[in-house]
Amino acid sequence: MTDATGLGPGERGGGFLAGPPDPEAVFTPEDFTPEHRMIARTAREFVAGEVLPHHDRIEAKDLPFTVGLLRKAGQLGLLMADIPAAYGGLGLDKAASALVVENIAGQGSFQVFHLVQTGIGSLPIVYYGTEAQKRRYLPGLADGSVLGCYGLTEPSAGSDALACRTRATLSQDGRHYVLDGTKQLITSARIADVLVVFAKVDGERFTAFLVDADTPGLSFGPDEHKMGIRGTTTCTVILQEARVPVDNVLGEVGRGHKIAFNILNIGRFKLGALAVGMCKRALEHALAYCLERRQFGRRIAEFGAIREKLAEMYARTYAAEAAVYRTVGLIDRLLAAAGGDHGTAALRSIEEYSVECSLVKVLGSETLDYVVDETVQCYGGYGYCAEYPAEAFYRDSRINRIYEGTNEINRLLVPTMLLRKAGRGELGLVPAGPPPVGAGPLAGELDRVARLKAVAVRMLALARDRWGDGLAGRQAVQLRLADLVLLAYAAESAVVRAARDAARRGPDRAALAVAAARIACETAVDRAGSLARQVLVAAEDRDGLTALDGWLGRQPVDLLALREGVASELVARQRAY
Ligand SMILES: Cc1cc2nc3c(=O)[nH]c(=O)nc-3n(C[C@H](O)[C@H](O)[C@H](O)COP(=O)(O)OP(=O)(O)OC[C@H]3O[C@@H](n4cnc5c(N)ncnc54)[C@H](O)[C@@H]3O)c2cc1C
Questions:
Q1: Which of 398, 405, 508, 510 might form a disulfide with 502, Cβ 3.0–4.6 angstroms?
Q2: pLDDT mean over 319-338
Q3: 109 in ligand 1 pocket by Cβ < 6 Å?
Q4: Pairing mode, if any, of strands 205-212 and 249-250?
């Protein structure tokens, strides 16, 4: 049964909670087409050949050089996946767009230049520009001859972006808006040819503007000295009576919040893809080092303490990757059904899956911080030294929990959006029973993931019934609800991905995937038990506390042996990917 959107209940945003997934409808990295794989390879080879050899120069902030690299990427088509062919782009699907971002990952600063150019710096025009604006800016943004940036944050408006104080006043002749205010922490502002800037018309109506770099009254503060991504430029943007033609209003006056939030949604799944790429690169380095470094007469990869790290890094990355591409697949499917990636259909597709976009942003960035932290540990003292790659990975990854909406804000959005959907009748908060026990190497995990989802749904319904609107004042509960949903999404994505892989290739050939998914599932169930218990205690639900273990259907699983199996395979084949 479908609703007015044409989507069945399980296909809507957040709908994965509603019942068992249709495995065949879940997009996985094993579903990439030859074209997807080709563009991924192009990106990887470009980074290996043109970017990584110049790491020091990029990190020393040689901006003309790095801009030149960005333009080279443009010539190879690596900036234009999301730009429609009619405006000089390739108009590829979101899977291709995410794959480019994933495979550009590896050099901390360059990947951010790329992410800004292909995301927040150009997509506002792709989705909200007038025909004239698209014709003017998109071909250059596609080939890198025009650089973009995105100015939302202000000194007093960070997470609370709508508290923006930058004002826009219509000139007396009605031909310009005059912008006054300050934006801060804006990446690539100094090198951008066009800046997407948010301001309030008459101090009230939040609106996006396209500000050309040569606009009189536009200037920049000094660059911030940052913990990581030091080769990027991040600075204050000062607007003093900056006159912007009325034709440069982006979208509608007073509707800037739609642009700000929808573009952040896209930014979030792309950031998830970037994080997966960084996880893979970091793990490759960690594994190579552990195979080479000897202590006590043995390679450190032979020590159980190190093997466990390698296995867990692999398993968490596997789950994050599964969740990112599942989300991308949902968006692509809706885009295809809507007749393509353009106009309101595209925006609705992205808005529909805003819960999933927040989930993969948090999951990707936190998986990455775990992976790079363990990478430093694998390198020991050298992990702390700039001569080795772990140190830069560690510093460069930390930003991902802060921008594109902090992880706190993204977590808070998850229960808020889900309960709103439930209130509108788009999502039933009735825990589904576990599916009939099936066959295959992951039958038990499919059962436990279904139970985990049902517990997440129960806790959402409990919080709604117990606190109602007062839940907004109980952030500690909201964060735990978000984590329950996150664990369920990540674990289910991993288990379904591996189950499909095993069904196609056979359990033996898919053994590594199966083991990774089992680790992801068991650790998720374990954590979910503790989180749900905290929610139940806070809600004073004694019956729920008694029932919890039964709901989760926990089974003794030898996680240590599973991790050892993954580590053995990685060490034997001497590479992770
Ligand atoms: C390197 C870098 C590059 C950036 N690039 C850009 C860019 O290109 N364009 C752009 O517009 N911005 C950019 N930013 C800004 C970035 O998006 C903001 O820093 C981010 O949104 C957080 O805002 P804030 O720094 O004001 O922190 P605050 O909003 O002050 O948050 C501080 C802390 O309080 C928490 N918090 C805030 N509100 C709540 C709440 N309601 N409930 C619970 N916790 C809350 C936050 O999660 C955070 O932990 C960049 C920042 C950095 C560091």
A1: 510
A2: 93
A3: no
A4: antiparallel
